[in-house]
Amino acid sequence: MELRQLEYFVAVAHERSFTLAARRLHVVQSAVSAAIAALERDLKVTLFERSAQRVVLTEAGTAFLPEALAVMDAVQGARDVVDELGSGMRGSVRVGLLPGLGLIDLPAAAGEFRRRYPNVELQLRVDAEGSAGVIVALRNGDIDVGFLGIAAGSVPRELTAWELLRVPQVLAVPVGHRLARRRTVTLADLADEAFVDFPPGFGTRTLIDQRFEAAGLSRHVVVEALGIENGVQFVAHGVGLGVLPGYAVAGVDAIRVVPIKDESFQWSLYMATLKKRKPTAALRALLGLVSTHLRQPPGTELGEDVSQQK
């Protein structure tokens, strides 16, 4: 097994295409195909299912990918040691973001990172499927680190996560709604109401759906908002109720906050990596920088300073 074969395997796994992998690696496609074939012979397994329409990982390929990434990370770590003694930090960091993530000043963090580490390629991408999409991208090795907005303690076991903020949520009710003058409500009071929420896959949507299902209740979501601010606007215009961060609706005249009896919908903002992958020097630098660009709105709490092994 050669390092080049692992590099080609990871590229094909990421691109889902031999042609695109070859383009990314700046080699001819036949070289990629030959390297993958040799690797499969060496391992005595088929790593990819190939057809004219698609290239997908087999079960063996899926199991092998995290191990290949770990080897590549170890090699990069060795290069980092040499680079730090010579021409400075190099490499790349691919970051998975959540839509409408306003709790971190990402433009400022990205700008400072580029100024400090000009030889590191920083790639930021928003995952339209929310936290669920970020988790899949981490598992597949498509990103190196990702942001998750999920219930505390629900980080998948194969990830290492750093809790950045804890964000309490409240029931946001349009001022003209029949529940706006109530002192408290129960989940049962909300069963027939129209809701503004986020698409399936978003951590907060999962949290709220699970609470209603546990109570034997269903919920009618009429709007799947693009982000927190977008959700607030829909509620303010009377489209539906929303379970939203308290800081986001504070001071909005068109919205009343009504406590839900015996329920808490607090979620946490995490940065997460795959446990099997050793963070590179560039990734460690980014992790340290993000904490200095957190926006902590009133009512939120800073997360724990230590990494949480899940």
Overall 3D form = elongated
- Uncertain runs with pLDDT below 50, 5 residues or more? 305-310
| Average pLDDT for all residues | 87
Distance N to C terminus? 32 Å
Q: Pairing-aware structural class of the strands and helices?
A: alpha+beta
What does this structure look like?
- By secondary structure, the protein is of the alpha+beta class.
- The chain is built from ten helices and 14 strands.
- It has helices spanning 3-15, 18-25, 29-43, 59-85, 106-116, 130-140, 203-214, 228-236, 246-249, 281-290; strands at 48-50, 55-57, 91-97, 120-126, 145-150, 159-167, 169-174, 194-197, 220-224, 242-245, 255-258, 267-274, 301-302, 308-309.
- Strands 3, 4, 5, 6, 12, 13 and 14 form a seven-stranded mixed sheet that branches.
- Mean pLDDT is 87; it is low at 305-310.
Keywords:
alpha+beta; 3-stranded antiparallel β-sheet; 10 helices; 7-stranded mixed β-sheet; 310 residues; single chain; 23% strand; elongated
